[in-house]
Amino acid sequence: INWGAGDRIVFLSDVDGWPHLYSVPAAGGQATLLTPGDFMVEYVAMTPDRTSVVYNANTGADRNDSQRRHIFRVPVDQAKPVALSSGASMEWAPAITGDGSTVAYIGATAQIPPLPYVRPLGGGQARELNVHLIPDDFPLQQLVTPEDVTWKAPDGLTIHGQLFKPANLRPGDHLPAVVFVHGGPPRQMLLGWHYMFYYSNGYAVNQYLANHGYVVLSVNYRLG
Description:
4-stranded antiparallel beta sheet
């Protein structure tokens, strides 16, 4: 729960089946859905002037963004979210600097593990914080980009997964395959490095297997 400008209380609720941001006058009244759509809001930060909320969600302009995370900003009193990041990368855990000019967050791609970044809150290019966290001999160029795949369960539900294929895979090749079985059903695997420690390790293992000639299917179970 956050106290926004204009005496509006901002909170998360999954009343429509998705965790979304709402705001309601502190004096009571009708709650306003700030982030409509088929996606989930996760990490949330209030701007210093309390007029906006910055958050990450699994949505965006690309059809595969449901399998990623991007940063957005929305006013506390109206459903007008604006994307602050986009593309094939993933961004999460935003934090706003005290002067309200910059958003810091953790970002990753299919190849680059999670690192801290900053970008202007009003829009602009991201900048990696030069902290030399990746060893020089880390095999970035050998990591593949997993594909978003779907299939129908016997009861008709569409299931999502990430398919890791060896870089030298050719049509007609027959290779050993692994189904990656991960933990709790709510955990959504992504099209890149994960933001949770355990699943970041699991992602690394999947990359390792693909590098050694295995096809790997990572399944997002029903709550994922």
